[in-house]
Amino acid sequence: MPSLTRTEAHRRSELLTVTSMAVDLDLDQGEQTFGSRSRISFDCAEPGATTFVDVLPVELTAVVLNGRALDAAALVDGRVELADLEATNVLEVEATMAYSRDGQGLHRAVDPADGEHYVYGHLFLDAAPRVFACFDQPDLKAPYAVTVAAPEGWLVLGNGAATKVSPGRWELAQTRPLATYFVTVCAGPYASVLDEHDGIPLGIHARASLRTHLEREAGQMLEVTRASFDYYHSLFGIRYPFGEYHQVFVPEFNAGAMENPGCVTFRDTMVFRGAAARDEVLARTNTIAHEMAHMWFGDLVTMQWWDDLWLNESFAEYMAHRTCVAATEFTDAWVDSTVARKAWGYAAERTPSTHPVAGSAAPDAQAALQDFDGISYAKGAATLRQLIAHIGDDAFIAGVGDYLRRHSYGNGTLADFMGFMERASGQSLTDWSAAWLLTAGVDVISVDRADGAVERTVPARFPADRPHTMDVAGFTGGAEVFRVPVTITADRTVVEALRDAPAADLVVPNAADLTWATVTLDPESVAAVPTALATVPDVQARAVVWIALVDGVCLGTVDPRVLVRTFGHAWPVEDNDSVLSRTSLALLGRIIPTFLPPAEQGWAEGVVAACAEQVLAAAPPGSTRALVAARTVARASSDETLLRAWAAAKDRPAGLEEDSDFGWIAVRNLAARGLVDEDFVEGRRSDDDTLQGRLNALMARAAMPSADAKAWAWTELTDNRSRSNYELNALAQGFWLADDLAVVRPYAERYFTDVPAMTEWVGEDAMARVATLAYPGRVVEEATVERSEAALGGGGLSAGVRRSMVDAESQLREALRSRAIFG
Ligand SMILES: [Zn+2]
């Protein structure tokens, strides 16, 4: 299917003004398809001109333009040509559409816990034509009036306030002008918690089988929602414009959440069914605040074309962290950003696919999707923090308010945004913008202790002159012995205060993590870090050091064993939950299984498991610290007796007695070690016959090391077309967990033909994730790289699969290089 090009979009928005959209959906036609009727009222600036409407039906029943029936057979590649337009037009399209199983369009899921069906619309980025006929581009906004027929007993939610007008018939209030990609309808027997704040009706919804958990969790989520509304109202000086505010936790959702005005959708694993560590609550709080920021930035003012997607995401990413710190209990949100978000962005900078924050070409809509990554989010947010350091917070906030007021219900561009920043700050930002926003790459920052110099190494591939505002701190024996604020504008800057600073065991550039840079520790600090990190009193500086070490391992400048040894000393005394969670996951998920040679992996896992046992024994029972430690033990331990007990819900740590997901971690570990069989996993599944339970069972079966289990899992992954997006993810995640390379090696070859072929039935959004998870990155051998290169060179890959393979191959090369350097 051709993706809308920027040129086509530009031409169509020159030509058309959409004045209103009426959409009627019939969700009461069975489990496979739904009825869709749309009535588009639009003006044409050049009467007589020709354009096209986007629609992707199973069957197109009728297309009527200004009362004249068009030939439904004229549908080609998702487009129907509209000729002889008048100054004012009405287009009516009637079609039968397919529900999706890949999370794009109108997704339909069945909850095995009670057999109930749930439907939700996810129209980002170009899936709207899978639900209704429209001019699918972000700058043709229109008010929507949506009506829905649904089975009796279902609740219907959408962008406008929903009213049940008769049994099974719902009318949604006409909305303010919306872009096509954030129209949604959620329907099913959802359970609800309703509230109200400052005149805004609030609702939180999830599957009926999650009702108990929803009711337990809703209080915290509503509290964050209220606090965020208050904060944004005071900061922007513009009231929330979209009426009611519903947050719907939906099954099998590809992303974290989606900012549909008035009806945000979230992945429903955020309604915790078991124990939740504090960093998980922080992440959910952050997501709630992020989507709310989009109501202004993204929804009220939308980017004109997808090349400015960063404007939405960088801003929401920045604003959500700011809101957490200013308006919630999570005042350490920036520490979480360092270990959870920026680590993701730095990894993206190291791949060949890295790109500038802004100004990427995005010649068509699908190309833009490829740039929706750690650069758009984490680097973009870090760049905004540098912008604020550069022009001051007052100017930034004033500029944002002016931008939002000027373009309300319309669209903006990078040039518009920077224009408002320049006017508010009274300074030219041309050079700043060229270096920070329009040039890819990350500078390496280090300190030359002898001369007191801060050094900046600019990547040769992407020459730029980025100024950095940050601080450098020194730590010795559990105390901060100096902290020097610096702004560097050259590749070497001698800082007098640094030269005169007292000696320190550990010197940390960018200690407050204000800038975007790869931190390279000086040799004395690397030598000291395994024991010194544990004594650093400042958690933000510790987080920066952790990520510096992880980056250093990936770049081949730090021996992975240094990271393992540092973990052994520093992790047991770490008191930040985000750091605890993220570092243990980084070690167990990537560093140990790929950077260390197989012979040393057991030793390193043992270090992690021992640390976690130590923390679990010492932490207050039921505390979040005990929870993170218990999960880490369950992941890393080789103690079969312990794992079997935990899998069987015996002798579990306090607070986890009933926690099914905790039990599944132990089951997965046992399965990957070949210690349990399919019947065992099946038994656990019948005890937990839920969406989550079934996914966990799939992952555990796929993790089993036998040749039969691998053959079964591979067929289910690459050949069973009825598998949902989440089932594919679970199979792919489990598949590579077995540590016997001989069993999985054949699939390292098959990946390159079998997985790309799945694009025939799996949408790009879901496919990109599956292609990443299924990549044979654990087969750390030159042969894997060669096969990968051959596949990339052979063509025929979808953009999403290609991007996933490029990035995964680059990670594989990092591991190979590290093994070559350090053994
Ligand atoms: Zn977002």
Topology:
Elements: H1 6-15, E1 16-26, E2 33-44, E3 51-54, E4 59-65, E5 68-70, E6 79-82, E7 88-98, E8 105-110, E9 117-122, E10 144-149, E11 155-158, E12 162-166, E13 169-172, E14 185-188, E15 191-197, E16 200-206, H2 211-236, E17 245-250, E18 257-258, E19 263-267, H3 278-296, E20 301-303, H4 309-327, H5 333-349, H6 365-369, H7 374-391, H8 393-406, E21 410-412, H9 414-425, H10 430-436, E22 443-448, E23 453-457, E24 468-476, E25 479-488, E26 492-494, H11 496-499, E27 506-509, E28 517-519, H12 523-532, H13 539-555, H14 560-570, H15 577-595, H16 598-618, H17 624-636, H18 640-647, H19 660-672, H20 678-687, H21 691-703, H22 707-719, H23 725-735, H24 741-757, H25 764-774, H26 782-794, H27 799-822
Parallel strand pairs: 1-10, 16-17, 17-19, 20-21, 22-28
Antiparallel strand pairs: 1-2, 2-7, 3-6, 4-5, 4-7, 8-9, 9-14, 10-13, 11-14, 12-13, 15-16, 18-19, 22-23, 23-26, 24-25, 24-27
Helix pairs in contact: 2-3, 2-4, 3-4, 4-7, 5-7, 5-13, 5-15, 7-8, 8-9, 12-14, 13-15, 14-16, 15-16, 15-17, 16-17, 17-19, 18-19, 19-21, 20-21, 21-22, 21-23, 22-23, 22-24, 23-25, 24-26, 25-27, 26-27
The chain binds zinc ion.
Residues 259, 290, 294, 313, 316 line the site of zinc ion.
